[in-house]
Specification:
By secondary structure, the protein is of the alpha/beta class. It is built from 12 helices and 19 strands.
Length: 380
């Protein structure tokens, strides 16, 4: 019997795991051997596949992987991932969560003193926590002005081991303005210094993120927490990564033609779903907005090494292509929405520019589960 994946429509999302391996090596080269690398794997590893990417990260030598859902952390442990796993803030601290954190040896986040107290009260043996402080994002974390006293109080709670401190810097546009980022880093460094001066040991302090790392590296800290940089989910005209050699793990998004036909319509042309020309030929690919294509196209696709414009918007499960300028196109031909074909290539950045998207991480997350994943890996 064929595998269920083989029974799907002919749509594939190709993911380059070797690019992830290379990106981790490049980040390691950039920050040096003594900086701990935390890698965000939230949102199904940014859409690239939690269980497929995690072994690659572990083999690449990252120090900690980070997820948002407790269920994802458990899945990673069940899948054999043995390196530390940080559970990002977002879960309610109840008895079930604390028991699971203790039993599976997860790093737990604390974003305020009350949360740390709940961990302390519910823990039976002990919980290792990473305290989060807010130095500019104005979201989760102990406010900067309360952070020194808060961290000292957390360190003194029973059954709590303070494993370190981290923050998520606010970068309103990729990388800048540098003075604003320096202000946030200075606030964080001051908190770290004050806590250490109070006699509290902080094994790790991390405050780096993808827009910040190319400018400041690890910013003098002993840990970095990176996400989309690992996956190469960057926008070339905005991200300041010129000193780093980063590859995209988004290799391609492909489909096939399931119908090709001439358009002979001569009546009600104004009411037609797209402008019709004399001699026009269209093709249909079995992929649409239910598969995420509305966020994954640059207005044309590649067929037989030629550009084939999309006509009208993708419908639920189908997309129409203008094949008039593609000689010989026929049913079964490959359709490339992202990736290379012949001498032409559509890059993720082409899609980002076309759709005016400034969030490169949304691309892989836009590929729905209805599209079959194909993983490329040569190095193991």
């Amino acid at each position: 019997m064929p595998e269920l994946d083989d029974l799907r429509r002919p749509n594939t999302f190709e993911i380059d795991l070797d690019a992830i391996t290379a990106n981790v090596a490049e980040i390691r080269r950039f920050v040096g051997p003594d900086v701990r690398i935390f890698v965000a794997m939230k949102a199904n590893a940014y859409g690239f596949g939690l269980l497929e990417v995690a072994p690659v990260l572990e083999a690449s030598g990252v120090d900690t992987v980070c997820v948002a859902d407790l269920s994802d952390a458990v899945r990673l442990r069940n899948h054999g991932i043995s390196i530390p796993i940080l559970l990002y803030a977002g879960n309610l601290v109840d008895d079930t969560l604390v028991r699971t954190v203790e039993e599976r040896d997860f790093l737990a986040p604390v974003t305020d003193l009350d949360m740390a107290r709940r961990y302390s009260t519910l823990a039976r043996k002990g919980v290792r926590v990473l305290a989060k402080v807010d130095v500019g994002l104005e979201r989760l974390g102990i406010p900067a002005e309360d952070a020194t006293s808060g961290l000292c109080a957390i360190a003194g709670l029973p059954r709590i081991e303070l494993a370190g401190v981290y923050t998520h810097l606010h970068a309103p546009s990729p990388g800048g303005p540098p003075d604003y980022l320096r202000w946030q880093l200075a606030r964080f460094s001051r908190i770290e210094e004050e806590v250490r001066a109070a006699g509290v040991w902080l094994p790790v302090a991390t405050a780096a993120s993808t827009p910040v790392l190319p400018y400041f590296g690890a910013a003098g800290l002993n840990g970095i927490d990176v996400g989309r940089l690992v996956y190469g989910s960057l926008r070339a005209d905005l991200d300041a990564t010129s000193t780093m050699h980063i590859r995209s793990a988004f290799k391609s998004l492909r489909s096939r033609l399931i119908q090709c036909r001439q358009v002979h319509r001569t009546e009600y042309l104004r009411e037609a779903p797209f402008p019709i020309r004399s001699g026009m030929r269209i093709g249909i690919a079995p992929i649409g907005y239910a598969d995420g294509l509305d966020s994954l196209n640059c207005g044309f696709a590649l067929v037989r090494g030629c550009r084939a414009p999309l006509v009208a918007s993708p419908s639920l499960e189908h997309t129409r292509l203008d094949l008039t300028g593609v000689p010989g196109a026929e049913v079964g031909d490959e359709v490339v929405f992202v990736g290379a074909q012949g001498e032409l290539e559509i890059t993720p950045d082409d899609v980002l520019r076309h759709l005016s998207m400034e969030q490169p991480a949304r691309m892989a997350n836009s590929v729905r589960e209805s599209v079959r994943r194909v993983y490329w890996q040569v190095t193991r």
